[in-house]
Amino acid sequence: MLPPCCPKGESKLNRVKFTDRFVKTRKAAPKGQRAEHFDAIIPQLGLRVTDRGNKSYVLLARFPGSPNPTRRALGTVGELKLDEARIRAREWLALLERGIDPKDEAARAIAAEQQKRANTLEAVFEDFVKEKLPSERKGSEVERSLRRDLIARLGHKPITDITRRDILGVIRDKKASAPAQARNLLGDIKRLLTWAVEEQAYGLEASVADGIRARRELGEKPTGDRILSESELFALWRAARRTPYPAGPAYQLLALTGLRLNEVADAVWSEFDFANRIWTIPAERMKGRNGSARSHVVPLTDDILTVLKGLPRGKKGDFVFTTTLGKKPVWMSQKIKERLDARMLRTLEAMARRRGVDPGEVKLGHFTNHDIRRSVRSNLSKLGIREEVAEAVLAHVRPGIKKNYDLHDYLAEKRHALESWGAYLKRLGQEPASNVTSLAAARAGATGLELPA
Q1: Residue 162 and residue 40 in one domain
Q2: How many CB atoms lie within 10 A of CB 187?
Q3: Longest CA–CA separation in the chain, Å
């Protein structure tokens, strides 16, 4: 039976089961006329042929707003294959049954697609950077990491098209090249996608990263217990001194202060008070949860001042360590660390040759930038520095009630501790590796005894 959308008399039309051959062999209509054929499978689906031989599929139906059935083009032959024309005809008829005009639905679909294309991952990321990251201590680090590893790869895709497989691909590639950074990258991606869901402005209903477990993909989180040996500290100091600006001097300050990587790399000149020989790192750049971070004062020892006074001043910004004339801080990438490791290994090999040991057997065990900080802290204890002073040097929050009631900043004590540590570190860099200053001698210096030249 012909559906009620068809006009009277249409049931008398000749209908034939459309085939590709039937459509292809229809000749042009007589001049000034149009020929029409209707499908036996979908009676409302017609094939219209003009006097010039142009062919198109039409749908004969009663559309909303029109009292009588009319013909509306589905698409031209060539643009639509026969099976595609039947699918579109069925879709339109289903919409008409619900009282929806296919033209309105097509406009809605186009608008939705345009909105989806506007909400690319990169566009959402830029909103995230602007709205979320400026107030965060590690905001610039998070931005650089996501921009380099996620956005460069997937930024062109609509955020609603990002799949779990996409995210896993990014994480697994990062694990292969820099396993220590892959865990942080996964956490940053989860934060970005969760924020996008919570904003309810990008059409994203759920985060595809929620089901990705760091333990399953990356293994157990390693516990930090790596401390550089005297030979490795010697190699680190020498490598840092021989590495060009900005990375080399940044590593020198890491070694001299025990600060975290970004506390050094993101330093600005306005934080330094050279008249009073102090460096004040504001609370927003220090580690802390729920607003617990506090500003940290670093005494500027002679060794630290020597490094700083040899640095160029950017003409376009205030950042100390930069490749953009001060506009942005340097990104201390994995490649920079790898080059430092290579310099250290060459130094260790030279030390081995001096001892008569085969340099081919020398290995530099893996260590992270944070292990430099741990090495400074451990050696401060070996130098006889009191625990509370050593903890103050690293800006560790004191435990329990002391963090609220003992607000002494230990400035003088920290200065003495860093001077003692700097003297020891410099002596490692000056003496032959087979005759480095012992920690016992350095400890004597820390307690006020004169060290031998």
Answers
A1: no
A2: 14
A3: 116
Number of Cβ within 10 Å of residue 373's Cβ equals: 20
| CB under 8 A, 24+ apart: contacts of 292-301 | 292/397, 293/137, 294/395, 294/397, 296/263, 296/395, 297/409, 297/411, 297/414, 298/257, 298/259, 298/414, 298/418, 299/411, 299/414, 299/415, 299/418, 300/272, 300/274, 301/256, 301/415, 301/418, 301/419, 301/422
Q: Give how many domains the chain has, as a whole number.
A: 3
On whether the CB atoms of residues 310 and 249 are closer than 8 A, the answer is yes
Cβ pair 193, 206 in contact under 8 A: no
CA dist., res. 102 & res. 67, Å (int)? 16
CATH value at residue 287: 1.10.443.10
CA distances from 452 to 202, 235, 385, 436, 442 (A): 68, 22, 20, 12, 10
**What is the tens place of the pLDDT at every residue in 388-405?**
999 999 988 665 444 544
CA dist 348 and 433 (Å) reads 9
Q: Which residues of 64-92 are buried (b: 16+ CB within 10 A; e: fewer)?
A: eeeeebeeeebeebeebebeebbebbeeb
156: phi then psi, degrees, rounded to nearest 5? -75, -15
Residue-wise pLDDT for 33-68, tens only, equals 999 999 999 999 999 999 999 999 999 998 887 788
Tell if the pTM clears 0.70, that is, is over it. no
Structure tokens at 227: 């401390």
Burial of 271 (0-12, 13-18, 19+ CB in 10 A): middle
Q: End-to-end CA distance of the chain, in Å? A: 109
Domain span including residue 30: 10-109
Rounded CA gap, 99 and 205, in Å?
Answer: 28
- CA 1 → CA 10, 71, 201, 220, distances in Å? 12, 20, 47, 67
Tens of pLDDT along 128-164? 999 988 877 678 889 999 999 999 999 999 898 999 9
Is residue 225 domain-resident? no
- The answer on 142 and 79 residing in a single domain is no
Contacts 24+ apart (CB under 8 A), 290-294: 292/397, 293/137, 294/395, 294/397
Same domain as 16, residue 96: yes
Residues 105 and 125 occupy one common structural domain: no
- If you write DSSP's letter for every residue of 235-290 in order, what string do you get? HHHHHHHHSPTTHHHHHHHHHHH---HHHHHT-BGGGEETTTTEEEE-GGGS--ST
